[in-house]
Amino acid sequence: MNLERRTFLKLATLSLLALAAKPAFDLLARPEIARALGLSPENRKRLAMVVDLKACTADTGCTDCIAACHKVHNVPDIGSRKEEIKWIREASYDQAFPEQENKFVKEAIRDRNVLLLCNHCDNPPCVRVCPTQATWRREDGIVMMDYHRCIGCRYCMAACPYGSRSFNWRDPRPYIKDIDLSYPERTRGVVEKCNFCDERLAEGKPPACVEACKSGALTFGEMMPGTDVYGLVSTNYTVRRKPELGTQPQVYYLV
Amino acid sequence: MIESIFKGGRKYWLLISGLLVLIVVGLIAYLRQWDQGLTITGLSRDVSWGLYIANFTFFVGVAASAVMLIIPYYLHNEKEFRKIIILGEFLAVSAVIVSITFVVVDLGQPARVFNMLLYPSPSSILFWDLIVLTVYLLLNIIIGWVTLDAEYKEIEPPKWIKPLIIISIPWAISIHTVTAFIYAGLGARPFWLTALLAPRFLASAFASGPALLILLALLMKKWGGFDPGNQSINKVAKIVAYATIATVFFLLLEIFTVFYSQVPDAMSHFQYLLFGLDCYYSLVPWMWTSIILACSSIVLLVIPRTHTNQNILAIACAVVFVSIWIDKGLGLIVPGFIPTPTGEIFEYMPTLLESLIVLGVWAMGGLIITLLYKVVLSVRREMAD
């Protein structure tokens, strides 16, 4: 009984604290104050990717980046549309940018395959809705997944506007061709998605997809003056997927 | 009081054993899901919530509807509600347990469910929903049991119960509002991204819950010699009538906004639901059945000659219940995922195992409600003697 009351009081206090914390957060969110405290995103390392659709050779049947990613991350090949698991996938231009619909756009552009992956949003709705903080946003902007904490409620899948998340409807292990022991396999019942290769970044290597791409369509790095990604995004017209939703996606497309 | 659940006639034991059979079947089906994962359901990468989450939403509504008896009795002093108010509270107990069970059944890793308490996440609406549902469950167990106990001992209920009853009123509204917020706060899903979702949920809850209550009360009158009082039944029928009208009205509001504005993002989901999209229309017949049922029940419920006849009233209530179950069960969750954010269509069809699990959870709710109502009946019978 005592313990129950304690737990209840703890939860109640936490809830009250959460309410009280809101004004404080709002204050910190004001740009001038955030900058003074060094909390402003501009002062922080921020990882981003640029996909150059003109350079990408997905149309010729190239799937090097997808194969490399799915190999190093033990992504199973279930072989059914219903349960497929995809970290990177291809989609048509209209599917990738439905709000850019325009029937007169050149066929060369409209028929182009577009690579889709997790956008590692600055304001990720999946992180907001997760009831266990099994998915969270790192300081450098990578939206991470804890496969061991995830309860498999799939709220994040409903919240993601990009369809970037997959669920292990069944045990994935029998569907992995050769298991790479340097990265964990998943159990059934948890959500997974692209992690910008945080495990490779930690070793100083580029993401697997970037390394595998022979056409130079993928550029990855910190979004700050002087880097390649910054140069591409600041001097070219780029588009992002569904920017109107306020998620601040960090994958930019050169059309 | 509780010992009365072990004493009953043939019909009582038949009902109990029937429900137990369904529960066992559901449990066997669930063990299969436990073993193989959610692959045994019709859910997919594109439609990642389905029958389980729809039933969760529906039964949160049934639970919230108990407030439609509490308000007239405790705030407006409508004395005739005295006999049936306990039915509402116990229905809420059973419905909350059913809805929480549906969430757990839907989890990919049910053994980790307590991670929600270990890592409380105030930014997640699901976290708040768990809190409001648990508190609402406790409130109704305490209120129902204490007032019935007082009735049994022929004393006034203790004074401290009154504040709890008053708190339970806004709390009932809160459980369904928070449940609506789970969906209404998602920018990714234009079908749910409407401030009207919570009012729509409440309206349909206040139609389906009291309709179920009337059905249960009439069944108990027929088989258990329970007297709900004609006046109270008539008043609850009025609530069902107006709430059903509000439900249909809110649906029409949504339909106007999406089809007149013609914003494709929002419109495509309603197109899929009502007319079918790109040759996919598995939900269309269901949804029109629901609309036709709702409209015909409104006719039966507003004409005095039909709604005062308890046989016709029972039919009207059954029609309301089925209509809203289709509307909320099939028409609310699934179209949110169709078409997908990339504009693709992948349809959802529940599997047999999935349906058996749903049936098992329903039977569990039925068993809880049967046992609780049995206690009420025996208390009332003893008082009459």
Describe the structure in brief.
The complex is a heterodimer of chains A (255) and B (385). Chain A is an alpha+beta fold and 255 residues long. The longest helix of chain A has 28 residues.
Index terms:
heterodimer, A: about 260 residues, alpha+beta, Alpha-Beta Plaits, 10 helices, about 30% helix, globular, B: about 375 residues, mainly alpha, Formate dehydrogenase/DMSO reductase fold, 14 helices, about 70% helix
List the helices and strands and how they pair.
The complex is a heterodimer of chains A (255) and B (385).
Chain A: H1 2-29, H2 31-36, E1 47-52, H3 64-72, E2 89-92, H4 93-96, H5 107-110, E3 113-116, H6 125-129, E4 135-137, E5 143-145, H7 155-159, E6 166-167, E7 191-192, H8 198-201, H9 208-212, E8 218-222, H10 228-235, E9 238-239, E10 251-254
Parallel strand pairs in A: 1-10
Antiparallel strand pairs in A: 1-8, 2-3, 4-5, 6-7, 9-10
Chain B: H1 10-36, H2 51-64, H3 67-75, H4 85-106, H5 115-118, H6 125-152, H7 161-184, H8 197-224, H9 230-261, H10 264-274, H11 284-302, H12 304-307, H13 310-329, H14 352-384
Structural summary, described in words:
The complex is a heterodimer of chains A (255) and B (385). Chain A is an alpha+beta fold and 255 residues long. Chain A has two domains: 35 residues; 209 residues, Alpha-Beta Plaits, CATH 3.30.70.20. Chain A is 31% helix and 14% strand. Chain A has ten helices and ten strands. In chain A, strand 4 and strand 5 form a beta hairpin. Chain A starts with a helix and ends with a strand. Chain B starts with 9 loop residues before the first helix and ends with a helix. Chain B has a single domain, classed as Formate dehydrogenase/DMSO reductase fold (Up-down Bundle), CATH 1.20.1630. Chain B is built from 14 helices and no strands. Helix content of chain B is 71%, strand content 0%. Chain B is globular. The relative contact order of chain B is 0.17. Chain B has 385 residues and is an all-alpha fold. In chain B, helix 4 runs antiparallel to helix 6 and helix 9 packs across helix 11. Chains A and B meet through helix 1, helix 4, helix 6, helix 7 and strand 6 of A and helix 5 and helix 6 of B.
